[in-house]
Amino acid sequence: MQRRDLLKWLGAAPLAATCAGGLLAAPAAPAKLLVVFLRGGYDAASLLVPSASDFYYQVRPKIAIPKPSGAAGAGIALSSDWALHPALKDSVFPLFQAGQAAFVPFAGTDDLTRSHFETQDTIELGQGGGHRNYRSGFLNRLAAVLNGSGALACTPIAFTDQLPTIFQGDVDVPNVALRTVGKPALDERQSRIVAAMYGGHGTLGRQVEEGFATRGEIARNLIGEMAAANRNAVSTKGFELEAHRIAALMRDKYQIGFVDVGGWDTHVGQGAAGGYLAGRFEELGRGLARFANEMGADWHRTVVVVVSEFGRTFRENGNAGTDHGHGTVFWVLGGGIKGGTVAGDQVAVSAATLFQNRDYPVLNEYRAVLGGLFARMYGLSARQLDAVFPGTAPKGLGLV
């Protein structure tokens, strides 16, 4: 879909409705919720760029996204403080302009292990207080609350190979595997042939050779840890290609969905406006825009929440990448949200405001943020919210 067509379509769609008599209009039609989990801890400071921070540009000499200027590859201004990665110009940015996308920086959990597995489990369980019952994920508890409220049933589904932790619990949840598409366009043999073709062409030949060498180095460094951190999640390309199938199932039958997307553990050569990470953002953004389009009229009663287990170190490392961090940025999208904003508690980004002198702090705790969204979406009582996120007061961000 072309950007101008997407903007035209966004302006023509009607208002939304919710599942349990919430605040987005006629309760006769159930709300739709899709949680997208970016496994591997994506670099949130490349997605939502703190463009007003000189410190950001000092400590990221190779991977910083250029300040908004209108030039190709520059960040896209969202406010005086924040810019968006240019890879999302034709996908998520039109949603932001239409008030159908928002970002919540300094979000995350109090888990300090910086372990993919520990923190992913912490978020999916949503239990807090150090208690862990691996048979009780927060989306399963949400489905149980909604189905027990006497309102319209909210039927869940996981778009995963196996039932994820977030959907473990008393409610039966089906899962459907998505096609994993993520092989490189050229395999190793084809890469050697192309490199040989350009071998005698001076500067161009060296650039081709260096490009393939860099790709090979990244692959060697990431194949172990990134594959493990992905937990069999679909690739960003796979998500882009399967977005229409996810939308069709959620449009026709299901109200609560979950999909995990891998490929975000960028310790080496993550790139800046272009490169590896930019490619993942571009594919993810196109998938989200396609999902919005394919939802049709249901888009205006749909909320999509994009989360990750943690952010990454604010300073780039010696391999032009980033390491495991703490605070991250959540995305909230939907046809009926009050978007076009960067929401939640914030702080000016500087050396003095980093957590442990290395990471974004967590100012918007994930259970409070999600609890606030669910309260508004579904009209949940304090007792019902406590069943989903025990001991957590909801945090209203004014997005729904």
Description:
The chain is of the alpha/beta class and 400 residues long. It has a single domain, classed as Alkaline Phosphatase, subunit A, CATH 3.40.720. It has helices at residues 3-12, 44-47, 54-59, 92-97, 116-125, 138-147, 188-197, 202-222, 225-230, 236-252, 276-294, 366-378, 382-388; strands at residues 32-38, 48-49, 76-77, 83-84, 101-108, 156-158, 256-261, 302-308, 328-333, 341-342, 364-365. Strands 1, 5, 6, 7, 8, 9, 10 and 11 form an eight-stranded mixed beta sheet that branches. Strand 3 (76-77) and strand 4 (83-84) form a beta hairpin. Helix 6 (138-147) runs antiparallel to helix 13, helix 7 runs antiparallel to helix 8 (202-222) and helix 10 packs parallel to helix 11. The longest helix is centred in the middle third of the chain and has 21 residues, at 202-222. It is globular and about 55 Å long. The model is unreliable at 1-18, 20-28, 180-187 and 217-223 (pLDDT under 50).
Spell out the blueprint of helices and strands:
Layout: H1 3-12, E1 32-38, H2 44-47, E2 48-49, H3 54-59, E3 76-77, E4 83-84, H4 92-97, E5 101-108, H5 116-125, H6 138-147, E6 156-158, H7 188-197, H8 202-222, H9 225-230, H10 236-252, E7 256-261, H11 276-294, E8 302-308, E9 328-333, E10 341-342, E11 364-365, H12 366-378, H13 382-388
Parallel strand pairs: 1-7, 1-8, 5-10, 5-11, 6-7
Antiparallel strand pairs: 2-4, 3-4, 5-9, 8-9
Q: Rg from C-alpha positions? A: 21 Å
Question: CATH fold name, please?
Answer: Alkaline Phosphatase, subunit A
Instruction: Please tell me the CATH architecture by its name.
Output: 3-Layer(aba) Sandwich
Strand residue content: 5-15%
The biggest sheet, with number of strands, parallel, antiparallel or mixed sense and barrel status, is:
8 strands, mixed
Shape: globular
